[in-house]
Inverse folding.
């Protein structure tokens, strides 16, 4: 039985989700605010969190940031905020998925199944040595990036994209492959996510982001890392 932590300040929605998820065989923890969510995240040992961003005490993005300090459990944002800025902020903070309200229960159950498969996937044990391209260095074993000797802070999504590209030097990674690998099934058409994150990576790593040497775009197809 998997444990789901649902965080939402709407008691009726919280209760409805609790009843429906329990009927599907989940153990359900609930929280009406961010402080309760953090307590449950630490002491309740949930397998996945379903989180509303508009909480009365702590911003949902801050909740994600705090959870990510100690936990890698999947976090599915469930929010009425439809703007791309809110989505990018939540994903940058470490959320794994973003579902907008109103939503269907079938969709949420599907997202939970995907989150369960991803969280139980085996980790890759062997890491290649660090990759140094001159402009920047990627230490895959220690998950660190430096540029001109200075550490570069990457968001979880930025790191996932960079890691996938660096592990496949010279190889075209299609948009669909990248979306499926990093965001999961159901994101085949969300190519704007990739444009946003690749732009951020180039600004952080390339000497001339407008004319990248290493993080290349193959128009209409995907992306390539050239050492």
């Amino acid at each position: 039985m998997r444990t789901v932590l649902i965080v939402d300040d709407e008691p009726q929605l919280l209760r409805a989700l609790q009843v429906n998820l329990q009927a599907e065989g989940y153990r359900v923890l609930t929280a009406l605010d961010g402080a309760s969510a953090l307590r449950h995240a630490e002491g309740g040992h949930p397998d996945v969190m379903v989180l509303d961003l508009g909480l009365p005490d702590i911003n949902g993005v801050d909740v994600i940031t705090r959870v990510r300090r100690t936990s890698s459990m999947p976090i599915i944002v469930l929010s009425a905020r439809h703007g791309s800025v809110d989505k990018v902020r939540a994903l940058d903070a470490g959320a794994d998925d973003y579902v907008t309200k109103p939503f269907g229960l079938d969709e949420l159950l599907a997202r939970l199944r995907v989150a369960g498969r991803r969280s139980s996937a085996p980790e890759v044990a062997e890491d290649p040595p660090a990759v140094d391209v001159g402009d920047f260095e990627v230490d895959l074993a220690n998950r660190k990036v430096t540029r001109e000797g200075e550490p570069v802070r990457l968001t979880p999504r930025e790191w996932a994209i960079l890691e996938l590209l660096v592990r496949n030097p010279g190889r075209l990674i299609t948009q669909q492959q990248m979306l499926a690998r990093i965001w999961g099934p159901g994101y085949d058409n969300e190519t704007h996510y990739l444009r946003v994150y690749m732009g951020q990576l180039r600004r952080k790593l390339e000497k001339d982001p407008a004319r990248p040497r290493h993080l290349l775009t193959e128009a209409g197809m995907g992306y390539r890392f050239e050492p």
In short: Helices lie at 11-23, 34-43, 60-68, 84-93, 105-119, 156-166, 175-182, 191-205. The longest strand covers residues 3-7.
